[in-house]
Amino acid sequence: MILTKNNVFDVETGLFGLERGRSNRDFSKEGSWGKNKFNNAFPVSLSCYMARRGLKLVYLKLDTNTQIKHEKIDVSSIFGLDPFASELFFSFETDFTPYRTIVTGKFPRTDLVTLNKSTKSACLQSLEVKLTALPDNSTYKLPETQYGCEIVVRPTTIIYLALGIAYKLKDSPELLLDYLDPTSIRRLSTWWDVDNVISYILDLANDLDRILISVLDLQEPFVLQPVWKTIGRTAKLHENCLDIFVWSDFAFTRLFFNAAREALGKKQEIDRYGRSIIWLSRMLLDFALEGRIPHADIIKTLAYNAQTDKAFALNGANTNRYMACTELTSPRIKKDEIKNIVLGGGQNFLSPERRFDAALLSNPELFN
User: Fold this and answer.
1) Domain ranges of the chain
2) Per-residue pLDDT tens for 43-78?
């Protein structure tokens, strides 16, 4: 029988910092512990726990040379309020309502929106959440300093990236046209035509870089990326197990901008990285010209004969160069601290996928 109270400490089942009434999910109930729900909620709980421990998160920002730099950021800065403030509310899988005025069509949901319950303009922050394993298949054989995490990005992430940049410039959209090369834009009359658009991808990336640099002080937290470290590629947790990285919206562009530049240097084709640049450029252009972003039409029309279930993925061998630091090699939260985050027997509500290949890997004695 699954209990909703811890027999020893009489602690209600739940997640640290996400007590009942603080979010749109009730973590004392089994229904809030499904795979996708847990993967979004645990990072928030971990953030609260690290704040209680007095630890700042690793913040990846874009510098004036369009390179990634590491800083530290308070958890209160990513949530918009002190994580333990009574007026702070966590809303999972919801839309960030301030963006509604610049969207055409159905408004997509983001992983997390934080709200201030005491104000009418309640929305504080919108965050994409990506819980990632360390190391991934591309790095588990390498030295630990070269371990990396695979990052999989949904089209919704690109949409929210565009919406965030557009919203920052809602009072001066002409700035976008100042930097998006008018000559290139005019000649790109048929964005759906591969032969027409492919030669402009690098120009679009460079134009977008100029926009970002011109408003560099406006970058803000965008992706919350906890890492959980294992021993090699086994399911056994490493002693130094958990930490959190936060990507600014501007820094996040390096993942697909640089990958597209490298790919185009080898072969002239539109891959998922280049397509993401096209999506972002077209969304910002439409906002500059029309004041709204028809995101669904853009993604559907500019698919370039590829599936649109994901924007792109980048393996750990590629993400390590951006994330490498002491916290990646030796995460600060020990595995025995997880019991302080998952409370009251909550782990019994989890339903991980059962895979035969994982079972074989977890039972090496079968092959002795």
Assistant:
1) 14-170+220-256+311-362
2) 999 999 999 999 999 999 999 999 999 999 999 999
